[in-house]
């Protein structure tokens, strides 16, 4: 990045600027988060044209561009691991202390995977196709972290 320099009509003050902000989840995202927060229900949307179920839900089908806003389906809290990775890079903005596991989890009844934390399992024991279930947080944050993590089904 090029460093700013003083000029005849402006001069530079070094400093940091904090930008706290709120993020609007959108109409579809808000319905998803509200159902998670208030009812511990995981919602997806089904495309009437291609029958694909998306979770997390989206407004438009990526295949047919159909509007999906009103075709809500309630999904199971269970699914299977598609693949996973181990997060080893530490950052204060991450939801967990590293190392932790992030997995792509295809919920039963969904056609697209949800990325979430997989816990209560050793890394060496994780296999694609492993059955898992959602563990909900005790306190809500009105975010996707109202699902605290997924764990293997015993
Ligand atoms: Zn479609």
Notes on the structure:
- The protein contains 1 helix and 8 strands, in the order αββββββββ.
- It has 154 residues and is mainly beta.
- It has one domain.
- The mean pLDDT is 92.
- It has one helix spanning 26-39, and strands spanning 42-46, 53-54, 72-75, 78-87, 100-107, 114-118, 131-136, 147-152.
- Bound molecules: zinc ion.
- Zinc ion is lined by residues 47, 49-50, 52, 61, 63-64, 66.
- DSSP strand count: 8
Shape: globular
Estimated structural class: mainly beta
Mean pLDDT over all positions:
92
Radius of gyration: 20 Å
Bound molecules: zinc ion
| Low-confidence sequence ranges | none
- The helix fraction, in percent, is under 10%
Largest sheet: 5 strands, antiparallel
**Total domains, how many?**
1
Series of H and E elements:
HEEEEEEEE
Outline of this structure?
The chain has one domain. Helix content is 9%, strand content 30%.
């Amino acid at each position: 990045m090029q460093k700013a320099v003083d000029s005849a009509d402006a001069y530079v003050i070094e400093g940091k600027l904090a930008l706290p902000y709120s993020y609007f989840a959108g109409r579809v995202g808000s319905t998803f988060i509200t159902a998670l927060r208030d009812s511990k229900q995981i919602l997806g949307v089904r495309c009437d044209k291609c029958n694909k179920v998306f979770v997390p839900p989206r407004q438009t089908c990526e295949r047919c561009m159909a509007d999906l806003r009103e075709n809500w389906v309630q999904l199971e809290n269970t699914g299977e691991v598609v693949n996973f990775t181990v997060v080893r890079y530490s950052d204060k903005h991450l939801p967990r202390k590293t190392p932790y596991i992030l997995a792509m989890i295809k919920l039963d009844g969904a056609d697209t995977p949800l990325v979430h934390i997989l816990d209560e399992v050793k890394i060496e024991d994780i296999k694609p196709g492993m059955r898992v279930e959602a563990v909900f947080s005790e306190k809500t944050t009105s975010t996707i972290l109202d699902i605290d993590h997924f764990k293997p089904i015993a």
